[in-house]
Amino acid sequence: MLVNLEHLGLAVKDLEAATALYTTLLGQEPYKREHVASEAVDTVFFQVGGSKIELLAGTSPESAITRYLEKKPEGIHHVAFEVADIRAEMQRLRSEGFVLLNEEPKPGADNKLVCFIHPKSAGGVLVELCQSV
């Protein structure tokens, strides 16, 4: 079961410029910066009420974020939902006909296990499931 809107992931070309912009916009500093080597991204997180904003910048040409920004403008990349049991939720969604991009949950940013749902089976939106580790 989806528990909460965990975060909105925003793809950006220049992480430092985007961090400065969102620091001013939100009136606060980010609470975390992290490099996720497995995804070839650098991330910055802001807490906004009970949810978060994640800025993502690719660190190599092979990064999904780098490839995404070659085709689309900066902006919302994905919507992430917190789940209590990611494996059970993955099984439930598969049985409902959703196409998952991951066979197993994988380590993600902010100390989470993550799995993505293909946009073609989710109304054109890339959806991320997150479970705290």
Strand order of the largest sheet: 2-3-4-1-5-8-7-6
Q: Based on helices, strands and strand pairing, what is the structural class?
A: alpha+beta
Annotated CATH homologous superfamily: 2,3-Dihydroxybiphenyl 1,2-Dioxygenase, domain 1
DSSP E strands, number: 8
Q: CATH first level: which class?
A: Alpha Beta
Structural write-up:
- It is a single chain.
- The chain has helices at residues 15-26, 64-71, 86-95; strands at 2-11, 32-36, 41-48, 51-58, 75-83, 106-108, 112-117, 127-132.
- It is of the alpha+beta class and 133 residues long.
- It has a single domain (7-132), classed as 2,3-Dihydroxybiphenyl 1,2-Dioxygenase, domain 1, CATH 3.10.180.10.
- Strands 2-3-4-1-5-8-7-6 form an 8-stranded mixed sheet.
- It is globular.
- The mean pLDDT is 96.
Concise overview:
This protein is α+β, with helices and mostly antiparallel strands and 133 residues long.
Task: Tag the structure with descriptive keywords.
133 residues, eight-stranded mixed beta sheet, 41% strand, MMCE/EMCE_epimerase, methylmalonyl-CoA epimerase activity
Helix-strand blueprint:
Layout: E1 2-11, H1 15-26, E2 32-36, E3 41-48, E4 51-58, H2 64-71, E5 75-83, H3 86-95, E6 106-108, E7 112-117, E8 127-132
